[in-house]
Automatic annotation (TrEMBL):
Signal peptide: none
Organism taxonomic ancestry: Bacteria, Bacillati, Actinomycetota, Actinomycetes, Kitasatosporales
Highest taxon above the source species: Bacteria
Major subcellular location class: membrane
CDD domains reported in the protein's UniProt record: TM_ABC_iron-siderophores_like (cd06550)
Name of the protein described by the UniProt record: FecCD family ABC transporter permease
Family: Belongs to the binding-protein-dependent transport system permease family. FecCD subfamily.
Source organism of the structure: Kitasatospora paranensis
Length: 342
């Protein structure tokens, strides 16, 4: 561990390898983002994209890069970062690599909220609000059901998986209650897609990450590492376990709900990014910053592949993350079984 001191009042401890991994993932995410900005029916080279981003392009290049393509790339980066951070928080709090919002039922709750808005004929803005509200309500309900003098990680996982199954059935029923055109729009949203995303989708997530990111990384990082040692050990070291757990769960649920509101319930990024970050950094603990950067790199890369893997056709990004994440989940379950943990 190394220590960075700012003045005489603030000091931050960090692992150099984790910092290098975070910087490498950030560079990868930005590099793929530049490639995505330059690809399409009006192709541009990386140098032209950078020149346009810095204000030196022609009016046509400025319109294509800054107004048509940049909002989608920025939304992909923010959604990936939010899902990576939310997944790292969930997995650390429940001390289980399967603990992610799409496994525990929080994204299904966001989907239920969005589907209710679709049934009632709400607008796209109301759909995003319904997703956030549904995610928060399901998070509160799962936390309340898991409470028994405290929230144990295994109990939260089991209740979350059960709630996920129930909400999946509810969402299937809600789909049958919608009109045909609304059902098609809802199915596309449920798959997870970044097509047509604009600044109105990115700004709420940017504000949430700007506020919650530093608060979690700097304010609760140490307490989260102590909680991973066990509730009794954390209490013995002076950490108010339930208060910290409730605050961090609230942050994770809000980030997952806002990510679902921006791009739909994109699957497996929150599950995969923290595990990949842990292996790259080779460090125990939550690896929050590395998980954020890894999530951003994963999603922007998956979206670029979704646009280019089939010439002439674009896939929803959720299809790519589902295929890759499903394979990772099978590998993770096999690894856990060989280790005797399941």
């Amino acid at each position: 561990m190394s220590t960075l001191r700012i003045g005489t009042t603030l000091s931050v401890r960090f692992r150099p390898r984790a910092l290098i991994v975070g910087l490498a993932c950030t560079a990868l995410a930005l590099g793929v983002g530049i490639l995505a900005l330059g690809s399409g029916d009006y192709p541009l080279g990386p140098a032209d994209v950078v020149r346009t981003l810095t204000g030196g392009g022609t009016p046509a290049e400025d319109f294509i890069v800054n107004q048509l393509r940049l909002p989608r790339v920025v939304t992909a980066l923010l959604v990936g970062a939010a899902l990576g951070l939310a997944g790292a928080l969930f997995q650390s709090l429940v001390r289980n690599p399967l603990g992610s919002p799409d496994v525990l039922g929080f994204t299904q709750g966001a989907s239920a909220g969005a589907l209710i808005v679709v049934i009632t004929g709400g607008s796209s803005a109301a759909l995003a609000g319904g997703a956030v509200l549904g995610g928060l309500v399901s998070g509160a309900a799962i936390y309340a059901l898991a409470w028994k003098g405290g929230v144990h990680g295994s109990r939260l996982v089991l209740i979350g998986i059960g709630s996920s199954a129930i909400l999946t059935g509810v969402n299937g029923y809600l789909l049958t209650r919608t009109q045909l055109m609304d059902a098609a729009r809802a199915v596309l949203w449920l798959t997870g897609s970044l097509d047509g995303r604009g600044w109105r989708d990115a700004v709420p997530l940017l504000v949430a990450l700007a506020v919650l990111g530093p608060a979690v990384l700097l304010g609760c990082g140490r307490a989260l590492r102590v909680i991973e040692m066990g509730d009794d050990a954390a209490s013995g070291l002076g950490v108010r376990v339930e208060r910290v757990r409730l605050a961090l769960l609230g942050c994770a649920v809000l980030l997952a709900a806002l990510a679902a509101a921006a791009a739909g319930p994109v699957s497996f990024v929150a599950l995969t990014a923290p595990q990949l970050a842990r292996r790259l950094t080779r460090a125990p603990g939550p690896n929050l910053l590395a998980a954020m950067c890894t999530g951003a790199a994963l999603l922007v890369t998956a979206d670029y592949a979704a646009q280019r893997v089939l010439p002439g056709h674009q896939l929803p990004v959720g299809v790519v993350t589902g295929v890759l994440g499903g394979g990772h989940l099978v590998w993770l379950l096999a690894t856990e079984r060989r280790a005797g943990r399941i």
